[in-house]
Every structure is written in C-alpha cells, then in structure tokens.
Amino acid sequence: MARRKAISPVIATVIIVAVTIAVAIAVAFWMTGIIGLFTGVEKIEIVSIAVTPPDQNNPNWQVAIIVRNTGTVPVTIDTVLINGQPAAQLQNNNLQPNQNICPAIGNIQGTVNYPPGVQDQINFELTPNANCAGATLTPGLSIEIRLHSTGGKEYPKLVVLP
Fold first, then answer.
1. Which band of pLDDT confidence, cut at 50, 70 and 90, is reported for residue 38?
2. CATH code at position 83
3. Domain total of the chain
4. Is residue 23 part of a domain?
5. Does residue 4 lie within any of the structural domains?
6. What is the DSSP string of the chain?
7. pLDDT in tens, 6-31
8. Closest Cα partner for 88 from 66, 110, 73?
C-alpha cells in the first residue's frame, strides 16, 4: 500500500484565508464601482433672482436668475415655470418662450447646461399687465419662478415684482 501525503492543516488554512481575502477585495472594488454609478447628485442652487422694474429705456421687467450647480453631475434646465405653468421650454438646446401659457415672457438668454461647480445666469423679460399663468403681472405681485431639470427635479424661488 502506497503512502499518500496530504497538505498540512496549517497550509490549508493559509490558502483558504488568502483566497477569502482576495475575493473580499474584488467584491469591495466591484461594489465601489456600482455605488459610484448610482450616487451622482443633481442639485441646482438658485443663488439669487434680481428683477429690474420697467423704465423709460425698457418697458418690461428684466429678470436675472443666477444659478449654481452644487451637485456632482451635470444638470440641464429644460423648463422655466411661472406660478406652476411652463413659461419657457428647452428647444434645440435653448429656452424658448411658451406663448400659449405666458405671453408675457420673452427674450430669454443664458445657458441651460451646467457642469458641476459652474455658476451662470438666465435672463428674460416679463411684460407688465400681461396675463401669465392665470395672474396679471402688476407691481407688488408675488410670483413663483421654478426651474425644472431633465433629471425631473424642480428648484423654486418666490419673487415680488417691483
């Protein structure tokens, strides 16, 4: 009868521990990659909204919205809402006024794509005494301006027309 030799219990334990550690490291790297895919945060901060009243040079309110992307993913604004109604919508990478809902809004300028950390400005005009989203725009009126992103989030700000 031939004598068979086996691996000693100590060496077998070392091999099992080494394989377990290698698998644990591989799983940790894999999970880190998956978590990184799903933890991008979309967050736009409306830094300020300035409304300049009509004057002799311009009969409309000038609205300037300063926006900063404080999230970790790029954000695209696709709609500007006034009192909950879409006043401007994204078309060909530009915001275009929606004349059916708010004929008071016009002349929109500014970018709509914000990489992380970028601050920029959206400018538009509001026509006094026009009906916009069910409200006649007059001095002293509070309106809600809300930015809607392609990610489905909304960023509201209340402003009083001077």
1. low
2. 2.60.40.10
3. 1
4. no
5. no
6. -PPP----HHHHHHHHHHHHHHHHHHHHHHHHHHHHHH-----EEEEEEEEEPP-SS-SSEEEEEEEEE-SSS-EEEEEEEETTEEEEEEETTEEEE-TTT-TTEEEEES--EE-TT-EEEEEEEE-TT-EETTEE--TT-EEEEEEEETTS-EEEEEEE--
7. 778 888 899 999 999 999 998 888 87
8. 110
**Alpha-carbon distance values, 36 to 1, 26, 63, 74, 108 (Å):** 60, 16, 38, 15, 36
Domain interval for residue 114: 44-160
What tokens appear for 117 in the block?
């950390």
Q: Could you report the per-residue pLDDT of 104-144, keeping only the tens digit for each?
A: 676 677 778 888 889 988 888 888 888 877 788 888 989 89
144, 139, 143: which is closest to 162 by C-alpha? 139
7 part of a folded domain: no
CA nearest to 60, candidates 112, 114, 129: 129
25 with 86: CB under 8 angstroms?
A: no
CA gap 91, 57 in Å, rounded = 30
Structure tokens at 80: 């500007």
Residues 6+ apart with CB under 8 A from 51: 61, 62, 63, 64, 126, 159, 160, 161, 162
